[in-house]
Write a structure and sequence with these properties.
about 5% strand, 2 domains, two-stranded antiparallel ribbon, 7 helices
Length: about 150
């Protein structure tokens, strides 16, 4: 989040009442205004009637966007480690809980195999056509890694 957006968010938060701040905190955790209102034992109609409801919605969007950016940044950091774990597992042909965790991390980071007629190979969207078993996919990725290692050597 840029400094200007952070300053705007801070200014917007300063204008909210304590009840509205509680609602913002609850709404970030909930899917709907009604769920957040129920969490606070406040009638949802009270929330809808707030004269600054549109500003509150903007605050919620900014907070959720900031949280999402932070989560994505954290996933990018652990995705590198996950790739290393998968590479080691493929080379040694081992399956461990670390491999499962690495796959889960890559799935959440958006680096995942897709059930389709194409297999994503790189984050740039390069694809290899056809459907493959996990073993075939691992062999293709190993060949690509070996080729890239030879190019850098």
């Amino acid at each position: 989040m840029t400094t200007n957006i952070k300053q705007a968010l801070s200014s917007m938060l300063n204008e909210l009442s304590p009840t509205q701040l509680d609602f913002v905190a609850a709404r970030i955790l909930c899917q709907t205004d009604k769920e957040a209102a129920d969490m606070l034992d406040t009638p949802v109609q009270t929330i809808y009637n707030w004269p600054n409801k549109q500003a509150i919605d903007e605050v919620i969007i900014l907070c959720k966007r900031d949280a999402l950016e932070l989560a994505r940044a954290r996933l990018r950091v652990v995705a590198n480690e996950a790739i290393s774990v998968l590479m080691m597992s493929m080379r040694k042909r081992i399956a461990t809980s670390r491999t499962k965790a690495a796959n889960d991390i890559l799935d959440r980071a958006g680096v995942t195999r897709k059930i389709s007629n194409a297999v994503d190979v790189t984050s740039a969207g390069e694809r290899i056509g056809g459907e493959y078993t996990d073993g075939q996919r691992a062999n293709i990725i190993n060949q690509m890694l070996a080729a890239s290692t030879e190019e850098t050597a």
